[in-house]
């Protein structure tokens, strides 16, 4: 049987204090290493740094081993910066790939789109959408979605039907209605899809940050910026992160419905079986302000009874 930590150590406060100091030192070391890496990458990102290294290399003013290491590191950092700059500016990249299936439509030629998305200051794994021609034919210029790596929360099918109508039924109905075949817009499709992806990740990031701020993600309490126990739960109840459930420590429960841009469109808060209109009004706005609104509403609620009591005295 494994004995508790306090029993094994005999509840020696000195040993426990040393363990806490060691943990703090390890945390500081990790932070300092991250800061050093950031400072090195910042210095190497300056164009003047690379020019000075090249000049010193020509003048032979630094040892050869240090020369090659510094130049290689600086060039690697420069290439990394160029890649990041491209991903920030381009955001959407198109390229062609070959389908290995010998019976594939259009001789296996496929058009792929890559979407570069950043979250919390870092690039996440890109999303890909592969398009093909739905049927053979020299005059066939239609494109349809063939494969993709998007999460289910992204309305890809709806966007494809709107901007890339390609089914024969859609084409027939459009011809009967207007006398012309429907036109596809790959540019509008790409822009609308990227907008949906960014909005989804913004909502996801905000919810994750709120859970951390209120100490609901199971991590160390030191990461929570709100020391008071205001909420017991704050979570999305659907994959699109449009419906958010709230549970307060005082027993109230609520539900928020947000639109694609994260604006709260509907808010219902129940307190002891009745609607809490005051809290509902306090929470309206964007979910990016939800944390401050919750905290402000909490302080108003605990200050109000105190002020009323003082008035009677």
Account of the protein in words:
The radius of gyration is 29 Å and the shape is flat. The mean pLDDT is 82. Helix 3 packs antiparallel against helix 4. Strand 8 (243-248) and strand 9 form a beta hairpin. 49% of the residues lie in helices and 18% in strands. Among the domains are: 92-202, Copper Amine Oxidase, Chain A, domain 1 (2-Layer Sandwich); 227-303, no CATH class. The chain has 313 residues and is of the alpha+beta class. The chain has helices at residues 5-8, 13-45, 47-59, 64-90, 156-163, 168-178, 186-213, 277-283, 290-312; strands spanning 92-98, 109-115, 118-119, 122-123, 127-132, 144-148, 231-236, 243-248, 253-258, 264-271, 274-275. It contains nine helices and eleven strands. The strands form three sheets. Strands 7-8-9-10-11 form a five-stranded antiparallel beta sheet, with helices on one face. The longest helix is centred in the first third of the chain and has 33 residues, at 13-45.
Topology:
Layout: H1 5-8, H2 13-45, H3 47-59, H4 64-90, E1 92-98, E2 109-115, E3 118-119, E4 122-123, E5 127-132, E6 144-148, H5 156-163, H6 168-178, H7 186-213, E7 231-236, E8 243-248, E9 253-258, E10 264-271, E11 274-275, H8 277-283, H9 290-312
Shape: flat
Q: What is the strand arrangement across the widest sheet?
A: 7-8-9-10-11
Poorly predicted runs:
none
Q: What percent of the residues sit in helical stretches (DSSP H or I)? A: 40-55%
CATH topology of the domain at 92-202: Copper Amine Oxidase, Chain A, domain 1
- Major sheet summary line: 5 strands, antiparallel
The CATH architecture of the domain at 92-202 comes to 2-Layer Sandwich
Determine the N-to-C terminus distance: 59 Å
Structural class label: alpha+beta
CA radius of gyration is: 29 Å
Look at the structure and give the mean pLDDT.
Answer: 82
